[in-house]
Amino acid sequence: MQKLIFVCAFALFLVPVDGADVRATEIADSMLTAMGGVDNWNRAHFVRYDFKVNIGGKLIAVRSHLWDKMTGRYRLEGKTKDGKATLALFNVANQQGTAYVDGRKLEGTAANEALKSAYGSFINDMYWLAMPWKWKDAGVNLKYLGRKPHGGQDMDVVQLTFGKVGLTPGDTYQAFVSPKTKLMEHWEYKLQSGNTGSWDWEYATTGGIKLASNHTKSGGDFIGMGKVQVLDQVADAVFTDPSASLP
Which residue in 20, 129, 148, 183 has its CB near the most CB atoms, within 10 A? Predict the structure, then answer.
């Protein structure tokens, strides 16, 4: 089985894109408009979703996320390989916070490793949720490759490569954008590790913007995002109290 979990840059706000050709930029702008517009994306306050990976009919990863997009506060819940509950309360801006396993607060090296892992999960999982919003981040290079057939239609294909940004800048992506919906409906990638893959994307609309709701591929494998929500209000305790419940 190919490696599924990977990471790339995820800035908090959209900024001008580097190295984009004119046609690729036009497609990116049309796509962002179709997804609700940059202003709505920047106004989104709290983002709540799950990350559920099902491969070969087996659920191999489940993580629950809540992100305060305005301040960087984060709550991540999951499980260890042996089924113990994990929790990380941290800030994505500095990766500082607290981590717990089965309700026990971790200290020292164990805590640092848990927080580093939690930050990696934020980067990875959020990219699966919101990759199309990332096209115009600094360090992202866009190149139009023309049209290729997929899913019964000819799609505009844009290649994404990366400057010295993120945790895996050697990744290369090809994004297939439907001329009908203006959405990225298919994604092919080659990671700097050499692993390759492709997924079809489905979307949910919440808080006036579109975010991924599900990813599928031939053979029945899927990555679901749970009930994706953009929320205006969340209790502060969710980011500080281990006993608090996710919305």
Answer: 129
pLDDT digits (tens, 9 = 90+) for 64-112: 999 999 999 999 999 998 999 999 999 999 999 999 999 999 999 999 9
All residues at 6 or more sequence positions from 65 whose CB lies less than 8 Å from its CB, including other chains: 47, 48, 49, 50, 51, 74, 75, 76, 122, 125, 126
| 23 HSE (CA, 13 A, CB side) | 11
Provide the token pair at 180: 């009908």
Which CATH architecture group holds 22-239?
A: Clam (2.50)
> Which string of DSSP letters, residue by residue, matches 194-229?
S-EEEEEEEEEEETTEEEEEEEE-TTS-EEE--S-E
Residue 206, strand partner residues: 209
Q: So where are the chain's domains?
A: 22-239
DSSP state of 238: G
Instruction: Copy the structure tokens of residue 222.
Output: 């899927």
Q: Which one, of 39, 17, 40, lies nearest residue 27 by Cα?
A: 17
**Per-residue pLDDT averaged across 21-39, rounded?**
97
Give the chain's mean pLDDT.
Answer: 91
**How far is C-alpha 204 from the chain's CA centre?**
14
> DSSP of 68-123, one letter per residue?
ETTT-EEEEEEE-TTS-EEEEEEETTTTEEEEEETTEEP-HHHHHHHHHHHHHHHH
**At a CB cut-off of 8 Å and minimum separation 6, what does 101 contact?**
80, 84, 85, 86, 87, 114
Alpha-carbon distance of 100 to 16, in angstroms, equals: 38
pLDDT for 163 equals 86
What are the tens digits of pLDDT across the range 146-201?
Answer: 999 999 999 999 999 998 766 677 899 999 999 999 999 999 999 988 899 999 99
Report helix, strand or coil for 65: strand
